[in-house]
Amino acid sequence: MALDGVVIANVVSELNEKLLNGRISKVYQPENDELLLVIKNNRGTYKLVLSAQASLPLLYLTDENKTNPMTPPNFCMFLRKHIGSGKIIKITQPNFERIVEFHIEHLNELGDLCTKRLIIEIMGRHSNIIFCDDHLILESIKHISHNISSVREVLPGREYVYPPNQNKKNPLEISDNDFKNIFVNNTQPVYKAIYTSLNGISPLIAQEICFRAQIDANHNAKDLDSDEIELLLTAFTTIMMKVKNNVFEPSIYYQNDMPTDFSGFKLDSLSALNSEVYDSISTVLQDFYGSKAILGRIKQKSTDIRKILSNALERSYKKYDLQVKQLQDTSKREQCKLYGELILSNAYTIKQGQTQVDVLNYYDNTTINIPLDPTLTAAQNSKKYYDRYNKLKRTYEALNTQVEETKKELAHLESINNALDFADKEDDLIHIKKELIEYGYIKKKLKEKKTNNLPSHPIHYISSDGYDIYVGKNNAQNDYLSFKFASNNDWWFHTKDFPGSHVIVKSKGDELPDKTLEEAAAVAAYYSKARQSSKVSVDYTLKKHLKKPNGSKPGFVIYHTNYSMLADPSIKGLELVTN
Asked: Quick one: signal sequence residues (predicted)?
């Protein structure tokens, strides 16, 4: 679901509590459409994220750090100049819209006290962050010209006007009569009549109003009687009073352990679902949207790498198919050798000019028909078949080597592709790109940013029996875990027939419980290309049985002693350790 006016009101309430009268100490712009403000207030330091990402605009407080570009973008530099050390004197939500305004007091170049507005509009693909002096736009994170939007321009020097509200009313100010009039001659379902008539009311909140009034949300609005409308008004007023009085209970609702909805207060209409109440709406937004936002960024930034990887895989599969076909064509080599041998042993009976000959195959006592070149003697025909045999034999031997090399290349590319599917940090992409450069899939630039051998930590879980389980997120981490981190008596897991992560279980010198072995196998299946399968075959063995051939590609190992089990891809029941 999207952020609605109720959630924004909850956010504004929290920001007023924590940031009001605070000073902006730092301004960062980690993404083209995202700001990070560091604010000091009441001896505390807060990090505020303002994201105008088209697919997932957000506004929340966070404890996490973000990677910033080496050179700050122009919008970031502009804000640093004008509101660096500025004091936040007011935070508002105009007209109950999905808009938050920060009124910031600062000294201008002449030392005079001035007030500016930093406005974030959370409106899907129309989201923006705009910096204004009164009603004049000074700058914005996205420039919207008349060519892009005929409704309003967002450009420096233009007057700032609020987005059109489609004649919706402010639910915090609407009179009782105006609320009742929403349903007069309205042929829409009741819940739709509510959210299409009021600012900031989402379908979820509209359905909650209907539920509390015990009215069918899909009932035709114009068919409501006066008593039913009174019930709706009572439910609506109760909810709006909570917003006015800042009485919030930020909550997330779960179905089958998956978060499905969230709100600024508990919803009676979702009481059948499991729910969790939080102390902070920012934590709700981070838990509900945080991973999606990160994955969205990673997916966006990995587009070029995915294209390069996809092209490399396509070329390699075509090469492999061609080599296999050519290898099949060499299957007649032994027949050519036999023909040459039988012609030579029967040369005295063969006359020049014959187009074929029937001879006894003394290997199986059958008669075999051999085609002949009539222009050649028996010895020459024999030599021709031997030459053909030797050529096919050389081709077979060469192709066998080439096919094995191509299979290794495909396995390497598929392992990188699998690592890309599980990349959740920018450092993961940097390491994947480094590996592609190292093996010639990406051209190396003259000045390449240095990266660590292990730029991010492996994924770390604790099993239900208390054993540490580590998962490699890329081939460099796979090699590190398997050959540097693991001890000889630790256990190693990997999917049998699919690319996947190396999984190490630290044994502590114990014999691992069956439950931990099963959980580790499930983790190996989960972090593999077989993640969507129901049952996956997983090999496991002690680390001391692993070998890495000289010159082999990253992540490649061999082993001759192992066990196998079928596992369901899963990480349920495991405790994730955050580094």
From this structure: none
